[in-house]
Design a protein that fits this description.
This protein has a 6-stranded antiparallel sheet with strand order 1-2-3-6-5-4, with no helix packed on it. The protein has a 5-stranded antiparallel sheet with strand order 9-12-11-10-37, with no helix packed on it. The protein is mainly beta. About 5% of the residues lie in helices and about 40% in strands.
Length: about 475
Amino acid sequence: MRFNLKNIAVLTIVYCLSAMSSYATKLPSYIVKTIKNDLPKASIRFDGLVTLPDGTVYLPVLPSNPKKNPSGAVVTTYPANKKLSQLPEVVVFDSNFALLKVIKNSKGQITVTDTKNIPFVVKTGLFPQDMLVPPGLIIPEDMKIMMGDLVINVANSRINDILKETSLVDKTNINTNIKVVPCTYLQDKTLLVTTIGSKMVNVIPTDSVVPKYTLKLENLPRFVQPVSNDKYLLIAAAGKTYIEVADIDQEVIAKKIDLSYQPAEIILSKDKTKAYVAALDDQAIFVIDIKNMALSEKIKVKGYPKNIALSDDGGSIVYSDRNTGDIYTLALNETYLNKYVFNASNVSKLALRGNNVYLLSRTNNSLQVVDNDLKDLIYNQPLADKPVDMVLLNNKLYILCASNELDIFDLKDFSLTAKITIPEGGFSKKIIVLPKSDTLLITNVSNKKYHVFDMRNNTIVQTLPTAVTISDMEILNRKVK
């Protein structure tokens, strides 16, 4: 095989750029600052993709020979002499970092501007190697070196257009003329509903009864968790060893985070920057960095975590061992101190505040309070049948029983202060806290309804129907287009 100087130069560039790919997902701070100043509504995805509310997409290009001491100033554009705010097709910064605008050609295919409009310094750069480019993107032949190991999915790939409009819903006996409850928080929001035995996530506007879209998973959902101000969803499906990251605006699966074990439960840190994931088949808590959408740590723990819950102060996790019923706490600091607390059978929910662990016992139909230091039961409160969910808010525990009762427990004096009967029958399942409001949503797994509960007056103010049964539900603080 013969090599000429051009071959050697190309191979050298590819090698050097591949070596720097670990830096791919993090755009330089000076670039981020310029983008945010000139395009304040721009969103920079964890893999570097830049998007605007009007659908404009820019692909970042990492320089092969970055200049020193950059300020983030734009030095070259195509068309020439344009500001970033004017959305030119090519933008080159003073470090040789560049942005290429995704456009459509005369055939309607998505691509970038003609290669003659792109400076050579950009053509020697590299796309972030873990970036998900728009499916079906056409890259000119003489720019293929910029791809490195990056794979472009075909236009009809499963990752494309994950939200499918649906009309396949039984509307029999459903009142489609419901009014939004007089709670401003529920206006212009979206419900994400999963159903027992279905691979679909139903996307339902809060002012509607029927799903507007469905998101089809590869298997039955384990969890669907909105993150990053509800721009993305972290999704786990039964039998899979990875978490999928769905970009809601781009309507694509943007990334897969492989854990090598089956993710089963997820909770978020107080500041929403981390996700803690319990696996079905490993003695560990996995830590996901939300900003970079990457596995940042694997914490080995005692037992196989189940019913994971964050402490009231955000400094610890409490969980039960799915095999033995042993309950442990895990400190979320540099020590990761993992302490045994108590043993209880058939626990459905846990909460942790200060030195006390609160647990719901399905076997005894009771709330039990355990002292961490004594490792013993210090209080037992009988409840209605089948307690299934619990949330700690201020100095109260709101406890949901499947027998359609909401019990309110005061932590100040360990007293049961209220018992609320939930109407409509069925099997109550979950409490959903609506942040920055005095409202809870209460789901029912059997009668296609959910309830709106006013915590100020301890009353159910509205019962809303859905066209699907609710196995699990999350709320998006936005209305899906």
